[in-house]
């Protein structure tokens, strides 16, 4: 145990010795840590003891050292006192010498400083001379640059700018004033660019001023190529001014041979482009030019007030547009990179839309065919002139088709009035030609020859009335006017032929047809009589025969006489349709007159016996028809035939309707006998009619239905009727059971009336009634079978 304590004490002493050594060799930064460790180990007392021992050790060591060096210290101290004396002497000597040196150095320093200043002055002078020698060309060039800018000499100014930037300012860039000049150069660049824009503006104003003159020159050149009269490119005021000079053709020659550069000075645009190319602003200048053009284009394309009311204003407008695009095309072809095809076509596209609107409005607001024809020629000139500048003129040519339709519609309206006037003024009597001269004049106007009239003496009567040659002439004039519209269009002869024939067919099938229909209509204001309607039929026949002459006229007009296969005129078929309508009106007129005669019929349906002669109304009707048909010698054969057949059928139907009328409740055999006599009178009339190629048997067939009915009832041949019913060869094949039943029932009712009892024997009366009832009973099933 003692050994353990001894070891612990030994370790503690060693630890404390190490702490003290550490304190000795440290700079004091470890003192706190060492002291803390001592207190932590509870060795403070031992540590203090060790520390005191260590202090005493060092005190002994110091004392030993001092004792050992004391003699040397004393000796050194004495030597130091001796040195102090010498040092004081030396100090006084140094002060004295210093004062002497200071006095001598001040004079030298002044001279040295003056020498240095003079050196610097000489160096500055030399540098100034060198700088001025470099700056003088800069200032001189800058002065010249200012003079050029004041005088707006942009080309020399650009060269001086180039010299300043590339040659002179490089040498003086370290000077502050060079920055001022550099800043001013930027201002000069901006000023030069602005001046180039001003020149561009002046150029555009010059273009706007002379665009119409350039367009007029282009119109004149196109007119020469297309052989178009000068009035379509000159204005009224120009023609008045140039009337004196026009005698020798000098004005037109100058206009035709005029070059665009004679009217427009293009040097400003070239200079501006070159300037901006030098300033590296070509792309910006190109965009600026295109923006200005886009602003100018709507102004050029703007329609002047009341343009559509003045033909000269219309021409001037198109000439201005033409001149604008000719200038633009010239700029595009003579400059590089200023504008491209894309921009030009976009400009053309916008202009095309505006022009289409203008032309369509001009078409819609024009009501004069002559003015529209002039407009068409001007549009053709415009397309031919502006096409040379690369402008897409095809859409504008398409508008001509719209113009053509409006033009043709106006012509149709105008000719409708002419046809109406001609038809209303005609008296519809055959023309009478007084002498050979007038007949030859008529043949030149209306070349249809009629062999039957060629040998007649003068005054010579022709079958048609005076409206026929007038209408023929009007149709020829219409064809000629339509042909005028096709002139100048770049189309084939076949297309021209169609352009003439289509409106001509409309003229015939609609305009003329409408006029004829309105004239012959039952509700027409001019109520035509029977003879006038007949004359219209004859007129349509001769107009139809004259259609080949119109065909030949169109062929000669378009193809020069060579026969061509194409669209045919539809006048012949139209005239046939009109003739058919007029024939119906003739039939109606004739039937109305027949009805007037038949309306006076007053049958006594209960008469015991017939009069023995035809009724008065039938005699009157027959006399009217005989007089009418006697005048049919000059009618067309077919019309005469159909008119006679129609009259006979109408008489037969009217007599049948009278017999079957619901107003007639009862009839006697005497009334049937009287109607049979009336029908016999009609049959005699039909057998005596003399119409070419019309057999009397055909006319007699018109009365056959009524004749068979009357014979069947009066002859009481019912057994033959019933036995042969349905047989087409039966003598009563045309008798319908329903019709026979109606008449039988009326006869039966008539026999039952007491009025007849005193005239008939009772036995016979009963027999007839019984027989009629039996017939009626047999007829009803047949009528039901037919239904």
UniProtKB/TrEMBL annotation:
<keyword id="KW-0268">Exocytosis</keyword>
<dbReference type="GO" id="GO:0000145">
    <property type="term" value="C:exocyst"/>
</dbReference>
<dbReference type="GO" id="GO:0006893">
    <property type="term" value="P:Golgi to plasma membrane transport"/>
</dbReference>
<dbReference type="InterPro" id="IPR042045">
    <property type="entry name" value="EXOC6/Sec15_C_dom1"/>
</dbReference>
<dbReference type="Pfam" id="PF04091">
    <property type="entry name" value="Sec15_C"/>
</dbReference>
<feature type="domain" description="Exocyst complex subunit EXOC6/Sec15 C-terminal">
    <location>
        <begin position="395"/>
        <end position="746"/>
    </location>
</feature>
<keyword id="KW-0813">Transport</keyword>
<comment type="similarity">
    <text>Belongs to the SEC15 family.</text>
</comment>
<dbReference type="InterPro" id="IPR042044">
    <property type="entry name" value="EXOC6PINT-1/Sec15/Tip20_C_dom2"/>
</dbReference>
<keyword id="KW-0175">Coiled coil</keyword>
<dbReference type="GO" id="GO:0016020">
    <property type="term" value="C:membrane"/>
</dbReference>
<comment type="function">
    <text>Component of the exocyst complex involved in the docking of exocytic vesicles with fusion sites on the plasma membrane.</text>
</comment>
<dbReference type="InterPro" id="IPR007225">
    <property type="entry name" value="EXOC6/Sec15"/>
</dbReference>
<dbReference type="InterPro" id="IPR046361">
    <property type="entry name" value="EXOC6/Sec15_C"/>
</dbReference>
<dbReference type="GO" id="GO:0090522">
    <property type="term" value="P:vesicle tethering involved in exocytosis"/>
</dbReference>
<dbReference type="GO" id="GO:0006886">
    <property type="term" value="P:intracellular protein transport"/>
</dbReference>
<protein>
    <recommendedName>
        <fullName>Exocyst complex component</fullName>
    </recommendedName>
</protein>
<feature type="domain" description="Exocyst complex component EXOC6/Sec15 N-terminal">
    <location>
        <begin position="50"/>
        <end position="219"/>
    </location>
</feature>
<dbReference type="Pfam" id="PF20651">
    <property type="entry name" value="EXOC6_Sec15_N"/>
</dbReference>
<dbReference type="InterPro" id="IPR048359">
    <property type="entry name" value="EXOC6_Sec15_N"/>
</dbReference>
């Amino acid at each position: 145990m003692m050994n353990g304590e001894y070891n612990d004490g030994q370790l503690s002493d060693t630890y404390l010795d190490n702490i003290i050594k550490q304190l000795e060799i440290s700079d004091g930064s470890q003192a706190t840590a060492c002291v803390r460790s001592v207190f932590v180990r509870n060795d403070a007392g031992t540590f203090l003891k060790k520390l005191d021992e260590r202090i005493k050790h060092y005190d002994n060591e110091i004392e030993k050292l001092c004792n050992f060096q004391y003699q040397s210290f004393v000796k050194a101290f004495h030597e130091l006192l001796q040195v102090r004396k010498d040092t004081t002497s030396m100090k006084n000597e140094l002060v004295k010498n210093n004062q002497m040196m200071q006095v001598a150095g001040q004079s030298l320093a002044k001279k040295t400083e003056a020498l240095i200043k003079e050196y610097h002055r000489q160096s500055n002078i030399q540098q100034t001379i060198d700088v001025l020698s470099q700056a003088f060309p800069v200032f001189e060039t800058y002065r010249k640059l200012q003079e050029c800018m004041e005088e707006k000499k942009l080309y020399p100014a650009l060269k001086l700018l180039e010299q300043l930037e590339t040659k002179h300012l490089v040498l003086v860039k370290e000077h502050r004033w060079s920055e001022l000049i550099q800043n001013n150069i930027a201002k000069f660049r901006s000023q030069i660019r602005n001046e180039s824009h001003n020149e561009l503006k002046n150029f555009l104003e010059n273009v706007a001023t002379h665009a119409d003159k350039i367009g007029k020159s282009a119109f004149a050149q196109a007119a020469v190529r297309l052989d178009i009269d000068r009035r379509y490119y000159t204005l009224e005021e120009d023609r008045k001014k140039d009337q004196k000079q026009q005698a020798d053709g000098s004005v037109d020659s100058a206009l035709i041979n005029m070059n665009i550069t004679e009217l427009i000075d293009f040097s400003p645009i070239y200079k501006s482009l070159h300037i901006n190319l030098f300033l590296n602003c070509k792309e910006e200048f190109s965009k600026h030019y295109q923006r200005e053009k886009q602003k100018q284009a709507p102004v050029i394309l703007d329609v002047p007030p009341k343009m559509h009311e003045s033909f000269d204003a219309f021409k001037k407008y198109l000439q201005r547009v033409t001149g604008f695009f000719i200038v633009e095309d010239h700029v595009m072809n003579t400059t590089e990179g200023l504008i491209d095809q894309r921009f030009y076509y976009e400009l053309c596209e916008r202009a095309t839309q505006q022009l289409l609107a203008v032309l369509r409005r001009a078409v819609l607001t024009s009501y004069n065919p002559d003015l529209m024809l002039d407009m068409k020629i001007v549009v053709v000139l415009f397309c031919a002139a502006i096409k040379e500048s690369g402008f897409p003129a095809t859409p504008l040519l398409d508008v001509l088709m719209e113009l053509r339709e409006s033009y043709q519609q106006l012509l149709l309206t105008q000719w409708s009035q002419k046809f109406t006037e001609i038809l209303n003024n005609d008296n519809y009597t055959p023309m009478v030609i007084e002498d050979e001269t007038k007949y030859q004049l008529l043949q030149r106007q209306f070349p249809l020859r009629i062999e039957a009239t060629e040998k007649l003496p003068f005054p010579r009567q022709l079958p048609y009335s005076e409206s026929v040659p007038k209408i023929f002439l009007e149709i020829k004039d219409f064809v000629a006017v339509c042909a005028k519209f096709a002139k100048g269009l770049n189309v084939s002869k076949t297309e021209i032929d169609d352009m003439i024939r289509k409106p001509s067919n409309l003229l015939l099938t609609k305009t003329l047809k409408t006029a004829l229909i309105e004239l012959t209509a039952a509700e027409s204001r001019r109520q035509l009589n029977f003879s006038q309607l007949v004359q219209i039929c004859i007129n349509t026949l001769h107009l139809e025969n004259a259609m080949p002459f119109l065909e030949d006229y169109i062929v000669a007009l378009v193809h020069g006489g060579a026969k061509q296969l194409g669209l045919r005129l539809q006048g012949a078929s139209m005239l046939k349709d009109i003739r058919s309508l007029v024939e119906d009106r003739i039939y109606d007129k004739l039937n109305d007159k027949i009805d007037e005669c038949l309306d006076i019929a007053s049958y006594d349906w209960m008469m015991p016996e017939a009069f023995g002669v035809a009724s008065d109304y039938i005699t009157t009707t027959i006399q009217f028809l005989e007089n009418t048909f006697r005048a049919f010698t000059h009618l067309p054969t077919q019309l005469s035939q159909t008119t006679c057949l129609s009259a006979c059928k109408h008489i037969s139907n009217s007599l049948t309707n009278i017999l079957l009328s619901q107003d007639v409740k009862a009839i006697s055999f005497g009334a049937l006998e009287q109607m049979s006599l009336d029908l016999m009178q009609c049959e005699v009339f039909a057998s005596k009619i003399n119409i070419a190629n019309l057999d009397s048997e055909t006319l007699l067939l018109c009365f056959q239905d009524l004749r068979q009915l009357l014979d069947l009832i009066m002859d009481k041949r019912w057994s033959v009727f019933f036995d042969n019913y349905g047989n087409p060869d039966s003598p009563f094949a045309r008798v319908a059971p329903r019709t026979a039943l109606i008449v039988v029932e009326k006869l039966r009712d008539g026999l039952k009336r007491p009025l007849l009892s005193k005239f008939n024997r009772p036995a016979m009366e009963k027999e007839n009634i019984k027989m009629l009832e039996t017939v009626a009973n047999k007829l009803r099933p047949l009528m039901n079978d037919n239904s």
